[in-house]
Write a structure and sequence with these properties.
The protein has about 325 residues and is of the alpha/beta class. It folds into two domains: about 5-130 and about 250-315, Bordetella uptake gene, domain 1 (D-Maltodextrin-Binding Protein, domain 2), CATH 3.40.190; about 130-245, Periplasmic binding protein-like II (D-Maltodextrin-Binding Protein, domain 2), CATH 3.40.190.10. Helices cover about 40% and strands about 20% of the residues. The protein has eleven helices and ten strands. Strands 1, 2, 3, 4, 5, 6, 7, 8, 9 and 10 form a ten-stranded mixed sheet that branches. α7 links the parallel β5 (about 160) and β6 (about 185-190). The longest helix has 22 residues, at about 265-285. It is globular and about 65 Å long.
């Protein structure tokens, strides 16, 4: 399903040998024009916030304009399908990618329109663990309160999140399994619409990313975070594990280019995003992000880990 490390190493070696004579010229010519950076979700979410932070620094490092646009739909699937089918493999078109989204959707949907291994991954630049939040005036003071209600009232509790078979959705499915509850999951086209949904009473709770728990801390109550350890930006919020629920997971975000993009151009983009990460990290960590820098073999190892963690679970889950 995903690319093995050995396949990646062989492909890299072959590509390096075939292009050794032209690497210097190609690298010197790239980028030759503005770079189109597609965000497959609504404005206002973690991917958008990050891209806006990255944009001016990328422009300075790469010497061209970086044009951020949004193409929401299908929890990212609309944009990822369009990208794999139509983007030119020259490094001037890049797209935000997320896992477990790009792992879960092709398993669950025959019509996802794209393949997990149909990208060239440039980097995974950060991670956000899932958090369970409720309105500040919610009757649920703790996770146990919410679970008790859900056990007594199957499907009555609505939990919103970004996309289907995304990090948020998978954590709701995991919570149903671990806590022996049956809730109604409400998918949105990104994180952007979630504040209005929870504050407007359209859902009873959200399974969302840690950034929203930080941003909305005066308006909501964060019951738990799905990480091994407490998140520095949410030091008073317990982990699910602390509360007796074996729930750990979240979303890796990164950048991809089309298959066939020259390796030296991927390397140029990887270096730029790595340097930008160091600059914006001091602003992102207080917002609940955990900074990462995984490219090449490491990037695909992360994909393989997510696939191994979720594939059997996804195949058993109802659509």
């Amino acid at each position: 399903m995903t690319r093995s490390t050995s396949r990646l190493a062989a492909a890299f070696a072959a590509g390096a040998a075939a292009t050794a004579l032209s690497v210097g010229a190609a690298a010197a010519d790239f980028p030759e024009r503005p770079i189109d950076y597609v965000i497959p979700f609504d404005p206002g979410g973690e991917s958008d916030v990050t891209a806006r932070m990255q944009e001016p620094h990328l422009e300075e490092m790469l010497g061209v304009s970086v044009n951020v646009s949004h193409q929401p739909g299908g929890g990212g699937a609309v944009a990822w399908s369009e990208f794999q089918n139509n983007a030119e493999p020259d490094g001037h078109e890049i797209i935000g990618i997320n896992i477990p989204h790009i792992v879960g959707q092709p398993i669950q949907r025959d019509d996802a329109g794209y393949a997990t291994d149909g990208f060239e991954i440039v980097t995974w630049f950060h991670f956000t663990p899932n958090t369970l939040i409720v309105p500040a005036d919610s009757p649920y003071e703790t996770v146990d309160d919410l679970v008790a209600f859900a056990q007594e009232n199957p499907q009555a509790l609505t939990i919103g999140g970004s996309g289907t078979f995304s990090g948020n959705h998978l954590e709701v499915l995991r919570m149903e399994e671990v806590a022996d509850i049956d809730v109604t999951y409400i998918p949105f086209t990104g994180t952007g619409p979630l504040p209005a949904a929870i504050l407007g009473g359209h859902v009873g709770a959200l399974m969302t990313n840690s950034m929203l728990g930080v941003q909305m801390e005066d308006e909501i109550r964060t019951l738990a975070v799905a990480s091994e350890e407490r998140v520095p930006a949410l030091p008073d919020v317990p982990t699910f594990k602390e509360l007796g629920y074996d729930i750990v997971g979240g979303t890796y975000r990164g950048i991809a280019v089309p298959e066939g993009t020259p390796q030296e151009r991927i390397d140029t983009l990887r270096e730029a995003f790595s340097e930008v990460n160091e600059i914006i990290g001091e602003d992102q960590v207080p917002l609940g992000f955990i900074m990462t820098d995984y490219g090449g073999d490491e990037a695909w190892e992360i994909v393989d880990q997510v696939y191994n963690n979720y594939s059997a679970f996804l195949e058993d889950a109802d659509d």
